[in-house]
Amino acid sequence: MVETPRQIHLNAFLRNVGQHEAAWRLPETDTKAVTDIGHYQRLAQIAEQGKLDAIFFADHPALKDRSEDRPWDSLDPFTLITALSGVTSRIGLVATGSTTYNDPYGIARRFATLDHVSRGRAAWNVVTTANASAAENFGFDQHPDPDARYARAAEFLDVAFALWDSWDDDAIVGDKAGGVFVDRDKIHRIDHVGPHFRVAGPLEIPRSPPGRPVIFQAGSSEPGKDLAARYADAIFTAQPTIEEGQAFYGDIKGRVRAVGRDPATVLILPGLSFFIGGTEAEAFALREQFEDLTLPTYGIAQLSRVTGLDLSGYDLDSLIRIPPRPDQANQRSRHDLVHRLTSAEDLTLRQLLRRLSAGRGHRIATGTPEQIAGTIVEWFENGAADGFNLIPPALPTSLSSFVEQVIPLLQRRGLFRTDYEGATLRDHLGLERPAVARRAVALPSAAE
After folding, report:
1. pTM of the full predicted structure?
2. Whole-angstrom Cα distance, residue 259 to residue 268?
């Protein structure tokens, strides 16, 4: 029997007109596309034509500093992917949602609904929200510290899972002759009482076709990795070098095994930004075109937010060293990443800002389609990734170039699908349908 080779997983991380902070300044960019549903419909359809696993949207529940310097993610990601479910049929739909500024019942209800509406293509990217300015938008005087946020996130996920499992698969009877629509013994309260939440349940929505939505997790701090090992189906992480990718990959797979889960069922998907050219020189010229349009004011504001340092008066052409982070830093993994980068290389602040402008610390591949495909395969075959979250610098152009020029090369190697074989996101990711976890007693009967 011939074994099917392990397949690369690819998602498209779609940020308005492109992840690169200067993408909006390119002559061909339509700046009105930021809030144009037609733009996002086109992106989803391009990604689906490329047979990608999923499209992925971030969430920023606060207007960032220096909003005058670039477009921001202005549309609610959940509403957006719900709209996109109607113009696609196979591609997965990933929306980010914060466990700090939402409630478990609301999140569980929305994603269960989307899983039904999309016929099993929904995924929730779990974050705890690093941006402290979000607190005031939700009536809080202070943003919780990272440890508190992750403790809440773990309980939040326990509640969401219990709600999704509060219906047995065969709870709907539909007995017209007997006048019985559901078997109440197969619908369960969860009666959760914990430090952060009190939720009775059950959910009012039956189990979805794949059992429950797929769980993505974004965050590479120590508590973030622990959370991912316990709950995630796939992990979005920033790893700029293959060595760092291999270390993260091995660490996560070990943590997954330690909590009794199969490491093969938790996919590691680093971010990958890319610049594609007919020649390597053309690709680097394209990257330089983007970097020449960057605004230092924006880059400094973002770097200051990540590190907690006031860099507004720093000489752009002086060498910079970012010190190790304090224990209670909000963006632990990104601070660590920038610290490692400036410790390993002699970079001026200007050079650092240009380096971060495309991927904010994610891997950047620059070269011909063959070289981009080679980078993906190298990481995949050498224990650094199960695939990638693609981060196109400009949209739609970079995404189209990847789909048209790189995907066929991976397909010829037999490492990426030529068509969808299943209908759900779990099918695309090679994940089994989870069984119902028994967590509660059945509902009382109507007579009781």
Report:
1. 0.90
2. 17
Residue with tokens 């189209």, as numbered in its chain: 400
Which of 235, 237, 242, 236 has its CA nearest to residue 374? 242
CA atoms of 296 and 66, how far apart (whole Å): 11
How does DSSP assign 424-437, residue by residue? SHHHHHTPPPPPPP
DSSP-assigned letters across all residues of 189-235:
---EE-SS-EE----SSPPBTTBS-EEEEE--SHHHHHHHHHH-SEE
User: Beta strand pairing status for 180-182 and 172-175?
Assistant: antiparallel
Residue 240 CB coordination number (10 Å): 21
Q: Which tokens sit at 405?
A: 């020029």
pLDDT of 94 > 60? The answer is yes
Per DSSP (E only), the strands in 209-343 are 214-218, 234-237, 267-276
Can you tell me the distance from the alpha carbon of 58 to that of 408, in angstroms, rounded to the nearest whole number?
Answer: 28
The secondary element (H helix, E strand) that includes residue 11 is: strand 9-13
Above 50 in pLDDT, residue 198? yes
User: Residue 444: pLDDT above 70?
Assistant: no
**Percent of the chain with pLDDT strictly greater than 90:** 73
Cα–Cα distance measured from residue 412 to residue 35, given in angstroms and rounded to the nearest whole number: 37
The backbone torsions φ and ψ at residue 414, rounded to the nearest 5 degrees and listed phi first, read 75, 20
Question: Per the omega criterion (within 30 degrees of 0), is the bond before 396 cis?
Answer: yes
The tokens describing 160, both together, are: 């969401």
The CA distances from residue 416 to 5, 407, 408, 413, in Å, are: 9, 8, 9, 8
Residue 277 pLDDT > 70, yes or no? yes
pLDDT at 442: 47
How many CB atoms are closer than 10 A to CB 416? 25
Q: Are strands 198-199 and 192-193 parallel, antiparallel or unpaired?
A: antiparallel
- Reading the block at residue 397, the tokens are 């152009």
Is a pLDDT exceeding 70 seen at residue 329?
A: no
Question: Tokens standing for 87?
Answer: 């113009």
Summarize the confidence of residues 290-316 as an average pLDDT: 88
Q: Which residues of 202-223 are buried (b: 16+ CB within 10 A; e: fewer)?
A: bbebbbbebbbbbbbbbbbbeb
- Across the chain, mean pLDDT equals 92
